[in-house]
Amino acid sequence: MSKIGVFICHCGENISATVDVERVAREIGGMEGVAHAIDYKYMCSDPGQTFIKEAVKKYDLDGVVVGACSPRMHEPTFRRACAEAGLNPYLCEMANLREHCSWVHEKGEETTEKAIDLVKMLVEKVKKNNPLESIKVPVTKRALVIGGGIAGIQASLDIANTGHKVILIERDPSIGGHMSQLSETFPTLDCSQCILTPRMVEVAQHPNIKLYTYAELESLEGFIGNFTAKIRLKAKSVNYSTCTGCGACIQKCPVKKIPSEFNAGLGTRTAIYVPFPQAVPNKPVIDRVNCNYYKRGACKICEKTCQVGSIEWDKEDEIISEEVGAVVLATGFDVKGTDFFPEYGYGKYKDVLTGLQFERLASASGPTFGEIRRPSDGAIPKKIVFIACAGSRDPAKGIPYCSKICCMYTAKHAMLYQHKVHDGESTVFYMDIRAGGKNYEEFVRRAIEEDTVNYVRGRVARVYEKNGKLIVKGVDTLLGGEQVEIEADMVVLATAGVANCGSEQLAQKLHVSYDPYHFFAEAHPKLKPVETNTAGIFLAGACQAPKDIPETVGMASGAAVKVAALFSNNELVREPIIAVVNRLAPPLYSTCVGCFMCETACPYNAIEHEEIKARDGSLIRTIARVNSGLCQGCGTCVAFCRSKSIDIQGYTNEQVYAEVMSLLND
Amino acid sequence: MEKLRERAAAILADGTVSLVIGYEEGTKRPRPLFCHDGESARKLIFDSRCFHNLAVYLTKKELVGNGRFAVTATISTLRSIMQLYVENQLSEDKLLILTVDLSGTLREFVTFDEISAYVEQFELKRSEREQAILTRIEGMTREERWNFWQEEMSHCFKCYACRSACPLCYCTKCVVEVNRPQWINPWPAPVANMEWHINRAMHMVGRCTACGACGDACPVGIPIDLITRKMMEDMAPEFGYIPGLPVKKGNALSTWKLDDREQFIR
Amino acid sequence: MSSEEIFEPKIVAFVCNWCTYAGADLTGTSRLKYATNVKIVRFPCTGRIDFLLLLKSFAQGADGIIVSGCHPNDCHYTSGNFHARRRWIAFRSILDMMGVDVRRVQYSWVSAAEGSKWADLVNNTVADIRALGPYTDYQKVADYLEKEVQDGEA
Questions:
Q1: What is the mean pLDDT of chain A?
Q2: Domain A142-234+317-332+500-567, what fold?
């Protein structure tokens, strides 16, 4: 028979004022399997805990129930006390007599009776408790950061500066991301590259950071503290150990008309190229899709030009394997195409641009060296129209959410335009101005008041060309829906920020969830914004939702701290509240039949296939196994398993069944 | 039918399969036939009287062994086989499916997709019997339904023939045999009986293909197949499935949608 | 306690640890009062709650049941409540087919911040079940076996 010790706390008067604690202890003391039951003023105090410890030894208790406050408050306290007395901490349970009883009911018979029932329930549960060992997982103290934009850069530097190794991979030939494309940044109008490039260089030179550009994640296996990442190093066709980055090959490359990704299609680049002058690493790659040699088998001009013989024509993609303990996802965002708004004429009229293209026009490193000129004829536009919410907040045609950054960058664009074209006239069509952020509202007011940007509240219905002008037809809803028509020289669309292409596939490789828009999903919308629901994988920046630079940097540092905290221990200790698939002696091996319906039910991809093999290696059965590193202990699989082959430690079928039976048995 | 016999004999002879499961004439109605050679394959029949769902044998290792085997399948059997594929209980490389379509042509299937493309053409309709009883039940008040089922359940003596006949009840240990805790009392009693049948229906959510085998098997004639049938009919539109047409990934209860109905949640 | 014959229903509440259990804790911290009829059984997640437990509760004499967890999108485990929601849709449909009184199972989402919602939920459920009366239909048949044994002994 069980020997359960029951300890009823008065909690000063918090419990004893409405519950007859002596009676509770007396009646529980008479229960079958209860060896010892007392009440005391403060169970959580030192003397209170000593009572428990002494009783564990004196009565050789095999279970403890503390009837006190919420287990969410003091469960760790009492479990620790039990452990100190030599009792497995998971044999201690708490009955919530304060929050769920004394504080919510008036003094009276029923309240005391309810308290008795609650304690009885936990006594019945504890009889079925099993000693559990907390799970210890070793930690590989090396982080993988995916994406080399400002989020990835910040996260890598922060982690590296705590003394841990970082592997940073970037899909493009250079790190820098969208931030490197920006001209000036709101709300201070400091030059984006001026503040970014020092950090890019720091990354490249940091002894703790290993940078792989032109690389993508192939697969990620394992669990928190113990991931194996397979990384595809795409063939650059240039040997970086010998290349000096002199750039002679780029000068001589005959394929010159490739639209430049960095300039958002406004400029051109060669087939062997460095994406932009400040690129890190500042060494070229060959774009095999456009290179004459790879297309037609002849050219090799770059090879002839190269003084050090760095061109490697036959280089193939290489797949390397890295062991890491944590992953930071910082893959950023993309700008939504504008094809869903044919009435704005993007793609049809050369002078209808996206916001990102305008950034390039305004940037000193851009195709016009910072002069605002029309792509069609190079003329300086005298009238310019900015259309905000081009795609955002438009469930019918675009995306329902607010892209958050457009209001601010549109104000910045209009401001930059006014600074560069003094006699120019700029108009912004907007739905609302969302300028929440430090100095943001002031910034927008400055655009309107000091730089005389004309803000019109209303939507644009159509943009069409007439006599070399772009006619913008819209309404001013503040003037009672009056029609507005502007003859503009240039139109800039504040296109929506969307999830980066390939984010869905990446999420599936990493087993992290994503929202309906393919942004990665945080573990909790308020309290775990940088965690994913897969332990050990963290989020930074706009891959989670559109966000501006300060927010991105903050989030990246947050993710870095999470990684550093994880790496501050040699072993991870986890609560053993995890699911387990039963194992039996042959020939059954387990009652699991391997239908793997649990596999789709598990939010953490913790269900693995285990092959039971005979001695000769032939497959007997395939059954489910729970990966204790991935399982978070929700128990959805347990309620789902038809043959009850999975159970969850701490809330086993026997335990919860005993609780329910005891509650109703009287 | 002749073609079916020839084909069965041929695949047995050339070693493509080591077993063909089909039907032969029985005393009252066709019964299952297990052919291991061409000789026995000559007894095979396949017509509208063959409604016994042979899929129930396919998960029995002791019957089908480790080699490749074939089965003659009705539409119901095909539906069950699809679900068994989804649940990893059958593998496409171990099974050859023979059937005769409405025009009398012999057809062969191997993969889930092939079966799906074929089964898609057949709508799962209520039979006259099913229609009659379900209309009656649907017309009842809740109290009347309770009394109806209490009366029916009072006949159940827990023989578990329904479980044995169901192709999808293939667990090595059924929940009624789990005794720590004893979820469902093993003896026949009104509540224990009802718990068993509610439990059976819950276990069939998103899985039942309404073959009716459980109802046919019930020795005391309780229309238990209608519990699962009704559940399936109600749940298919609820969760966006076509009744009787299994989908490859996930099950109605192991997947979810953000906009699942919740007006009953306060 | 002179019996004025006010029916005191027995109600079990199955709640998740992260939202509703914490919400009920907040009810306590806020000193909001509610009826003593409801007793809480704690689960890690609504996804863990087995439908058989609900059936067993009725068989064991419960007059009503509350099942409550995190609001959609708030689940600590991201999707346990979504799985649970589907399970309850199917379960309700089957119970209704069998003639079980589905009004006696109250589903709810109560977050960790909704202390007052928990108090209201309990009080409303107690009132509803009180209006429905004891679940004798079920209890009558549930007692079947026990009674027979007693009769045999008598």
A1: 94
A2: FAD/NAD(P)-binding domain (3.50.50)
State the total domains in chain B: 2
Q: Specify the DSSP class assigned to residue A175.
A: S
- Give the model's confidence band at C138: pLDDT under 50 very low, under 70 low, under 90 confident, else very high: very high
Domain final residue pick, B74, B100, B119: B119
Same domain membership, residue B194 and residue B211: yes
Within 8 A by CB and 6+ apart from A242, the residues are A308, A309, A310
Q: C1 in contact with A at a CB cutoff of 8 Å?
A: yes
Position B161 in a domain = yes
What is the residue extent of each domain of chain A?
A: 4-127, 142-234+317-332+500-567, 248-305, 335-498, 579-649
CATH of A335-498, one of 3.30.70.3180, 3.40.190.10, 1.10.10.10, 3.50.50.60: 3.50.50.60
CA distance B34 to B41: 8
**Would you give the DSSP letter of residue B96?**
E
Distance to chain B for A393, nearest Cα, Å: 20
The ipTM estimated for the assembled molecules is: 0.94
Candidates C12, C44, C49; nearest CB to A663: C12
Give pLDDT < 70 ranges for chain A: 665-666
Q: What are phi and psi of A460, to 5 degrees?
A: -95, 130
- pLDDT band per the 50, 70, 90 thresholds, residue C151: very low
C4 falls within a domain: no
Judge whether C105 is closer than 8 Å to chain A, CB to CB: no
Report pTM: 0.78
Closest C-alpha to A266, from A376, A417, A413: A376
CB atoms within 10 A of CB A121: 26
Q: What confidence tens digit (pLDDT) does each residue in A18-76 have?
A: 999 999 999 999 999 999 999 999 999 999 999 999 999 999 999 999 999 999 889 99
Q: Among partner residues C1, C74, C77, which is closest to A634 by beta-carbon distance? A: C77
Residue numbers of the domain that contains C115: 11-153
Let me know the angle formed at the C-alpha of C75 by A655 and C58, rounded to the nearest 5 degrees: 40
Which residues of A make CB contacts under 8 Å with B?
A: 516, 588, 591, 593-601, 622, 640, 642-645, 653-654, 657-658
Residue B249 located in a structural domain: no
The yes-or-no answer to whether A142-234+317-332+500-567 and A335-498 have a common fold is yes
| β-pair partners for A390 | A495
Q: Which of B87, B163, B172, B239 has the most A C-beta neighbours within 10 Å, making it the best mutation to test the interface with A?
A: B172
Q: Which among C22, C57, C119 has CB closest to A660? A: C57
Q: How far is CA B252 from the centre of its chain?
A: 17
Residues of B in contact with C93 (CB under 8 A): 230-231, 234-235, 238
Task: Compute the CA torsion angle C16, C19, C23, C25 (nearest 10 deg).
Answer: 60
| Interface probe, candidates B256, B257, B263, chain C, greatest C C-beta count within 10 A | B256
**A71-84: per-residue pLDDT in tens?**
988 999 999 999 99
Asked whether the beta carbons of residue C90 and residue B227 sit closer than 8 angstroms, the reply is no
* Residue B242 pLDDT exceeds 60: yes
A658/B88 Cβ within 8 A: no
Q: Are residues B90 and B160 in the same domain?
A: no
Cα(first)–Cα(last) distance of chain A, in Å? 21
Chain B residues whose beta carbon lies within 8 Å of the beta carbon of residue A588: 172
Cβ contacts (< 8 Å) between A635 and chain B: which residues?
none
Q: Do C45 and A104 touch (CB under 8 A)?
A: no
**For residue C130, is it within any domain?**
yes
**Domain range holding B13?**
2-119
Contact A104 C79 (CB under 8 A): no
First and final C-alpha spacing in chain C: 31
Going by the DSSP 8-state scheme, the letter that residue B54 receives in this structure is T
